[in-house]
Amino acid sequence: MVQMTMIDAIRSAMDIMLDRDDDVVVFGEDVGYFGGVFRCTAGLQKKYGSSRVFDSPINESGIVGAGIGMAVYGLRPCVEVQFADYIYPAYDQIVSEAARMRYRSAGDFTAPITIRSPCGGGIFGGQTHSQSPEALFTHVAGLKTIVPSTPYDAKGLLISAIEDDDPVVFLEPKRLYNGPFDGYHDRPAQNWTNHPLGEVPEGYYNLPIGKAAVRRSGNDVSIITYGTMCFVAEAAVRETGIDAEIIDLRTLLPLDIETIEASVKKTGRCMVIHEATLTSGFGAELAAQIQERCFYHLEAPIERVAGWDTPYPHAQEWDYFPGPARVARALRTLMEAV
To answer: pLDDT for 183-200, tens place per residue?
Structure first.
């Protein structure tokens, strides 16, 4: 085991897969010579050559479209969309082509493409560099959607995504690239150095897609979340003293509903947290499934904490970001509800 940032872990996953499988290719905007805007692909072109790690034009639909063609041909492309905010031009390719390939060909063809993209706020990126569009992909049959929260999970799940025979949308919370973030922007930033969740095996390993992790065991309330909000939830729990169980989904689709159900039936209360906007966010689907399966075990209505239904602001970023103070208030309210 070695200490890695999430950037290191993601790079290590691609490095290992490029070395193990000649069919793996990596490309996107600035991922080749420059090594990616966040340096996730730094050094890979020099190691594997410009035919396997290369730059693309600034054309997201072209990046994904070319990747789908390669995938159907038999390659395993791992493509990068530089920011999740720019994935929308490729949405038709992802939804109408990649996600439907196995179904429309009656299993004759698959599209083993992995689409990496940094998501989320907390970096003063404003409305065009801070979005969390994960719910748009969980609505689409044929896609898998992953949002890791630690370097260990990022490496193991990215390897699994590249190995998967179907398309995977792999969203990387950019605020976690260099360290865990508890939501306090005015405090010194943490890094993954010496953090137990920053310990990552140097070599090959994978993690099962569709399996959640219990980040904290508890008996009073179940917090269902993913990505950056895992650490925000931990901060709120420390400050309130509430004995919460924190479930990190890791994979949104397929969803590990069994782990969620077991937790909520144990605690009797449930809070769902995500950074994306509230209305039609993934938390709505979570709340619906939890209500259907755990209704007679719930002692209070399910609480949701999320981003506001506005574009992501720049000047008011920390009023928008669901920080520990907002989560703590909601936790106290939920524990008082009858």
So the answer is: 999 999 899 998 999 999
Q: Which two tokens stand for residue 141?
A: 């049959």
State the residue for tokens 């008996």.
219
* Among 122, 113, 60, CA closest to 91: 60
Torsion (CA) 292, 297, 300, 305 in degrees, nearest 10: -60
Q: Which amino acid is at 36?
A: G
Strands (E), the chain: 2-3, 24-28, 53-55, 76-80, 114-119, 144-146, 168-173, 199-200, 213-216, 221-225, 244-248, 251-253, 270-277, 303-307
**Token pair for 302:** 């399910």
- Report the side by side order of strands in the sheet with 244-248: 213-216, 244-248, 221-225, 270-277, 303-307
Give the Cα separation of 321 and 166 in Å (integer): 33
Return d(Cα 59, Cα 86) in angstroms, integer. Answer: 9
Neighbours of 310 (CB within 10 A): 10
Tokens (6 digits) for 274: 């995500």
Instruction: Record the pTM.
Output: 0.97
93-115 in b/e burial notation, b at 16+ Cβ within 10 A? bbbebbbbbbeeeeeeebbbbbb
The DSSP code for 126 is: G
Mean pLDDT of 67-80: 98
Phi, psi at 191, each rounded to 5°: -130, 175
Spatial distance between the Cα atoms of 176 and 298, rounded to a whole number of angstroms: 33
Among all residues, which ones are annotated catalytic? 129
Distance in angstroms (rounded) separating the CA atoms of residues 188 and 168: 34
User: Which are the contacts of 82, defined by CB distance < 8 A and separation ≥ 6?
Assistant: 28, 29, 30, 37, 117, 118
Q: Above pLDDT 70, what percent of the chain?
A: 100
Domains and CATH numbers, the chain: 2-200 (3.40.50.970), 213-336 (3.40.50.920)
CA distance 328 to 324: 6
Query: How many Å apart are CA 324 and CA 307, to the nearest integer?
Result: 13
